[in-house]
Amino acid sequence: MPTDYKLGTCKWCETVGEVFRDNMLCDDCDSNTVYCLVCRQRQHYESKCRHIFQSHGWAEWHGAGVDPNDEEMKVPFHRLLSAMGEDFAVDLKTAIRSGKFYTWIVAPMIGGGGSLYLYGMPDRDGRRMVASWGDVLIGLGEGQHADDLADGYHWLVSLHQRRTTKANRTTIAWIDQWLWPFARQGMAS
Ligand SMILES: [Zn+2]
Ligand SMILES: [Zn+2]
Predict the structure, then answer these.
(1) What is the end-to-end Cα distance of the chain in Å, rounded?
(2) Both 90 and 173 in a single domain?
(3) Which residues surround ligand 2, an ion (CB under 5 A)?
(4) Are residues 137 and 53 in the same domain?
(5) CA 109 to CA 111: how far, in whole Å?
(6) Same domain (yes/no): 39, 86
(7) Is residue 57 domain-shared with residue 77, that is, in the same domain?
(8) Ligand nearest, relative to CA of residue 34
C-alpha cells in the first residue's frame, strides 16, 4: 500500500521518524509551520515573521507571505474597512500606492494595547495620522468585535511596502471594490 509517509528526518525539527513524502516534514511540523514567500523560508507559529498568520477560528495559514491573492481574506478585510470607515479606506489606498505603507507594532498584538504605526498614511487636516489610525485599530482590537476583525487586521499587517507587491495590488483591488458603493452614492447625489 502506498502511503503519504516514509521514514526520514524532518526537514524542520530534524527528528527521525515518519515524515510526509511530499515535504519531508513530521506531522507536527506539517501543521505548525508554513513557508513564507516573502522571507523565502519556513516559519513556525511560535516565532513567525510578519507576513503570515493563522486565521481566527480555523487556524489556517494566510497572509501576504502565504497567498498574495487570497480570496478568502477579502470578506474579513472588507469587514475591517467597514469598521474603520471610508476615510481610512481612501487613505490606505493612497498609502499602499505610494509604496510607503507598512505597519510597526510596539507591544502585544490586537487585544493587548501598545502602539501601532501605519507608515505612509497621509496627513488629514494637517494632522499626522501614522499613529492615530493605529490607535483606532487597537481600540477595535480591544472592543467586542475584535474576533470578527482579527483576520482583516492580520492581513493588513502582513503587508510590506516593497516586499509584498502582489498582496499590495490585491489589497488595492479589495479597497476599490469596497469603495465602489460610496463612489456610486457620490455620483447619484
Ligand atoms: Zn518536525
Ligand atoms: Zn515572512
Answers:
(1) 68
(2) yes
(3) 36, 38-39, 49, 51, 65
(4) no
(5) 6
(6) no
(7) no
(8) 2
Count of structural domains, the chain: 2
Is it the case that residue 136 has pLDDT exceeding 90? yes
Instruction: Provide the pLDDT for residue 189.
Output: 46
pLDDT at 58 over 90: no
The answer for residues whose C-beta is within 8 angstroms of residue 46's C-beta and 6 or more apart is 32
**Tens of pLDDT along 68-105?**
999 999 999 999 999 999 999 999 999 999 999 999 98
Provide the grid cell at 81.
Answer: 474597512
Mean pLDDT of the chain: 91
Do 28 and 96 lie in one domain? The reply is no
Strand partners, 61: 54
d(Cα 99, Cα 83) in Å, to the nearest integer? 24
Could you list the residue range(s) of the whole structural domain that residue 48 is in?
5-62
Instruction: Indicate if 32 and 88 belong to the same structural domain.
Output: no
User: How remote is the CA of residue 38 from the centroid of ligand 2, in Å?
Assistant: 5
What burial letters (b/e) apply to 147-177, b meaning 16+ CB within 10 Å?
eebbbbbbbbbbbbbeebeebbebbeebbee
| Residue 89 and residue 23 share a domain | no
The verdict on 80 and 150 lying in the same domain is yes
Instruction: Give the pTM.
Output: 0.87
Q: What is the pLDDT of residues 147-183, one digit of tens each?
A: 999 999 999 999 999 999 999 999 999 999 999 877 6
- Distance between Cα 101 and ligand 2 center (Å): 16
